[in-house]
Structures are given as C-alpha cells and as structure tokens.
From TrEMBL:
Pfam families in the cross-refs: CheW, H-kinase_dim, HATPase_c, Hpt
Record PTM Phosphohistidine, positions in chain: H52
Entry keyword set: ATP-binding, Chemotaxis, Coiled coil, Kinase, Nucleotide-binding, Phosphoprotein, Transferase, Two-component regulatory system
GO cellular component: cytoplasm
Residue ranges, compositional bias (Gly residues): 302-311
Coiled coil: 352-379
InterPro entries in UniProt: Bact_Chemotaxis_CheA (IPR051315), CheA-like_dim (IPR004105), CheA-like_homodim_sf (IPR037006), CheW-like_dom_sf (IPR036061), CheW-lke_dom (IPR002545), HATPase_C_sf (IPR036890), HATPase_dom (IPR003594), His_kinase_dom (IPR005467)
Organism in which the protein naturally occurs: Skermanella aerolata
Record-given protein name: Chemotaxis protein CheA
Domain called Histidine kinase: residue spans: 311-562
Gene Ontology terms, MF aspect: ATP binding; phosphorelay sensor kinase activity
PROSITE patterns in the record: CHEW, HIS_KIN, HPT
Leading EC class: transferase
Domain of life: Bacteria
Amino acid sequence: MTGGYSDDLSRFKQTYFDECGELLAVAEAGLLRLSPQNIDLDEINAVFRAVHSIKGGGGTFGFSDLVAFTHEFEAVMDRLRSQQIGVTIELVDVLIRANDVMAQLLTCARDNRATPPGLTDAAAADLKRFLAAVAKKAEKDEPVAEDAPPPQRAVRRESLRSFVIYFRPKQDLLLSGNEPAFLLRALRRLGETEIVCDAGLVPSLYDMEGESLYLYWQVSLTGATDEAAIRDVFEFVVDDCQVDIVETTGPADGGEDEAFGLFSENMPYVPPGQLTVYDGCAIPGAGGEQPAAPSAARPAGEAGGSGGSGLGGHTIRVDLDKVDRLVNLVGEMVITQAMISEQLRDVPPGTLQQLVEGLEELSRHTRELQESVMAIRAQQVRSVFSRMPRLVREVAAQTGKEVQLATSGETTEVDKTVVENLVDPLTHMIRNSIDHGLESPDERERIGKPRSGTVHLSARHRSGRIVIEVEDDGRGINRPRVLEKAVERGLVAAGVSMSDEEIDNLIFLPGFSTVDTVSAISGRGVGMDVVRRNIASLGGRIGVHSTPGEGTRFVLSLPLTLAVLDGMVISVGEQRFVLPLTNIIESLRPKSADLQSVANQYDVIMARGEYVRLVYVDRLFRIDKAIGDPTRGLVVLVETEEGGRLGLVVDEVLGQQQVVIKSLESNFQRLDGVSAATILGDGRVALILDVAGLQTMSRQTINRGARRPPPPAAALAC
C-alpha cells in the first residue's frame, strides 16, 4: 500500500509541476503585455488565477516557501485587479521578477532541493512595499468620524438582484493555499454586501489546530449580478467548501438600498446563539427558528458559471517519450510496407490480386496513422514566440533602446522537436538585431526614423517547410566594417574580393564579432555561428538579407517534421536519391535546341517561357556511370525557397514513396546538398536531397555539360 501511495503522490506532483510550467508562461505573457498604456483586466485576472493555482497546489504538497512567497504575489495581484494599485513600469518589473522567483521556487520543489538563502528576500520586499503603500493610502483616506455613513451608490432598484450566500469551508481549506478573505473581497466587488461571521464553533485555545479553519460566513449581496458570477468566485475552492446561494425577492435587509461597510481582514465577531446551523451552513435565526430550505441551492460540488468551461475540449497528458516511440514504430511500419510493395512489383499482373488490394488498403491506413501521429506531435510556434517579448524587454533595457516586437504566424504548426530547438537560435538573432541592428533612439530621430525600433518575428509554411524570419528596421549590415573585422581576426585573407552576399555571411563565422569590448550581450564571437550550427543540425539553413539604412532580415528554413516525408525516388548512375515531393514542379526530357550555356559556366534550359539553370547531380556528387545528358535522361524542375526554379539532371524517376527521415549528421556526418537519409523498400540507403544546398553547390563550381551555343541575353538573368 505504501508503495502505491508513493507512486500516486509522485504522479500527482509531476502533473502539478507540468501545469505550473503552463501557468508560469501564462503569467509571464500577461505581465509582459501589461503597461500603463495597456491595462487589460482580463489579463490581470488571468495572471491572478495562475498565481493562485500555483499557490493552491503548493499548499497541497506542503511547499511552504513557495506558498509564503506566492501569498505576497497573489495579494499584490488582488489589489491590482481591484484597482487599489495603479499600473506602473516599476510595478510590472517587480511582478516579472516575482514570477521568475516563483519559477525558481518551483524548480527547487521539483528537484527536492532546499530553497537557497535569500532567494525571495528582494522580490518579497518589493511586493510588500506596494502592499504597504496601499494600506497607508487606505488609512489616509479613512473618514475621521467613526460613525460617518459610507458613501451611497446610486443604482436603479429594478436592475439589482439580491442573494444570500452561505459559505462553509472545510477545516483544511487553508492547507490548500486558499484564503476566505480573498473570496469575500471578490464577492464585495459584485455589489453591496453585508458579511456576518459565525465563530461559534471555534474551540478552546487548548484544542485549536493552528492550521484549521473554524469560521463560517453568511453574505447578503445586492447588485447587478447573477448566480453564475457568484459561483465563479468559488471556482477554485468548489471541492473544499460548501456554498449555497439563495436569491431573495427583494433587498437583503428588506429596507432601502444602502452601501454596507467594506470587508476587512478583521472579521466581525458574532457570539454563538445569534446564528443557527442549518444543513451545515450558518443561517441567522431568532431563538432557533429555522428558515425554509434553500431549494434553489446547488450541490456543493457542482460548479456554476464558467466553472465548467474546461469541458469544451478533452485533453490528456502523455509523456513525450511515448509519442516518440509511437512515431518510430509508425516509421518502421512505413519501411516494412514499402518492402512488401517492392517484393510484389515482380508479381505478374492479375495474380495475387487480393494480396495487392489488401496491401493498397494497408498503405492508406498507414498514411492515415502516420498523419494522425504527426498531428499529435504538431505544436504551434506560439510557444516559442511567447518567450520573445521578455527577451526584447530585457535587451532593450540593457542597451538603452526603445524596441517594439511585432509577431505574425504564431499559429503555424511544426513538429515539437523542431519547436523545442528554435528557442536558442531565435534568442541569438533577436539579441543581434537589437544590439547591432537598431540605432539608438536619438540617432533614429536624427535620421528621420521613429524613436522606437521594430523587430518583426514571423512564421509561415512554404514548399513543405517552415520559414521563420527575424527582421529589423535598423541600420543594416555595415559591410566595410564586417570585412575589415574579418581580415583583422584572420578569418578572411587581406585584399580578397567578396560579393555583398558573401560579406553578409561572414557574421556566421566562429569567432566573428564587430564589437571591440565584451559586454553582457555581445563581443565574445559566439552567437550567430551557434545559430547556423543548430539550424543545420535540424536539416535547415539560415540566410541573411540586408539593406544599408533600412534593416536586416534573417530567414530560417526548417523541415516541418523530422520523422516522415513524401518524396520522389530518382536514380543517378547506380545511386538512389529522394527529392521532397513539395519541391517538385514537373519532369521533362528537353531537346538539344532547348539547351544553352552561360559564359561557359553553367547550362540553362528553356521551360515554359523561362530560362532555368541546370544542375548536374552526377557532377556535384562525382557519380560514375550516370547518363549526364539531359536529352537522354530527365530534367526534374524543382522550386527553391526563394521562389526560383532549378532543373536537376537525373537518369530516371523511379516513383513516389513515403520515406522515414533518418538524421545523417547524428549517424554519420553532414553532407552539402543532403538534408537526411532514408531506407528504401529494397533495404538500400538513399540520401534525401536538399534543393537549396544543391543550388549553393552549383554556384560554387562549374556545372555544365557539353559546350553549347551562348544563350539569349534574357538567360543571363538566371
């Protein structure tokens, strides 16, 4: 029994920590959007609920340090949402730091480590400072005359509804991190309230448990509200208390509408005997008189209002390792199905027809299964984009620049593995854009730009890949200085002639930096080379486009998934290659008259009124026994990521096939022009070609066949 209980507790804790990760992200995103110019009460309430939920779970598991700190955090958020505290830049900074401290406390709790001494001191002191300011202001605004009537609130009687709420919490409510004071304050915000406390069940001091709750409450509420809004107040404690709500026919006191005194931490004491206990709730009565049973009251465990909003979609948490194993099994299934199909190709037509039909049916089911599994792994890039506002805020503060972050395409979906590996590259690129790209506010104003610079982060699908761009409206790349620094650091030979594109790509070299002094942001010569290496490890690539005085744009191109793709199997000599199907436009066999050469460097072909550069795959990879002649082999027209076209000269197109992607870099080494490898149906290993890599390789070498007549001038634009 002990072992089973321990396993259950560990599982519940893991679920709690998983949920806390999501709640921390929600809180941080809401705080980053909060500013004196942008006050959204829904966002503030969302942050409050996140902190409250973390505190409640922490209390359940006995994380005392976490509960103590989140109590202060929650108190400030409560004052903020009740507009007792105004939104300032300083307050937002304090709340963001408090969220970081809360994350550190959760990490310590998850790892069963003691909280480092002084971890919460500074953040807790800042939070208490704001709470003290609220208390001081309330004390200052308090009327001098003790019997002065509270201000009247003008409301239309016909728009008001009156309720009596009987609130009886369980004795262990406090252990879950919940506080009745917060709930009662929330009720007070719904209208005019009269709150009466029953302390009749409070035991003697000798018998009292310090962490138990012995008080019950009755609240008379009159306001422009409904029962659903009242039950929303108790949404987080619905399982830890009994709440009965009775709507009365008139105002709660049967008299004129009036504002009652504000509820404070010091609850009014009502001697035993003034309240009668009915059905577990404290109900006022004279001489033991019992009122009628509240027929409209719901069962205590039934949530009202939005309490059931989470039932709109059913989800479960699954360990990612289990999904990965499922993906691998589906991949092996695809390979096995391809092997069986390969064996049946030699069967004479008309024989084993039922087996052939069954195999086709299996192929359809395998594809559906593969698509379903990949959909499980698909994740929106929003999870990465949501981390960047915090980064922009911090780097802008460190550099003294004014920066706005614009995002688009957050709902673009990509494989979870790809998403997880995007954080570091995007972090480096955004830091680079702010530190090196954007000018200072004064400089921008002097040259006629807005003082605030903009970094635009976008994502979209293109040609079966995901393209992510980081663009700024800064000064652009200073190419003379980049080349000077590259020569100074020995990365480029002195006097070498380089194109603008080649100079721009120097920033990706290891050890390159244009900064003379090392700072917390840059100057160490690491960053952009790490970006290129990380992107390459995912089968992707990165390019840079810059216009002096206007800005710089980094373009990342990554595969949508690292598991399976639809490809076309081609042959070059005795080798087999796979081309991603999304890149292929068409295949054709040109005539000799359709071929032209450009400056004795490469060949082009006229295809549908446009000259297309030819790439001889056999020459790039030095493959023997290949046809190598487009007029006897085939030209496969493919689309590049920039929207251009290439013509790949191959021997033969063998057919379409779904293939399982195997990382070449992790199992062998990285090869130019190749993104990954796969296993074909006959058991042979085939390389998956990278169209952009082939384009780059063809530009770096003479890639042409027999000498051709010079092309028309229009072809020189290729």
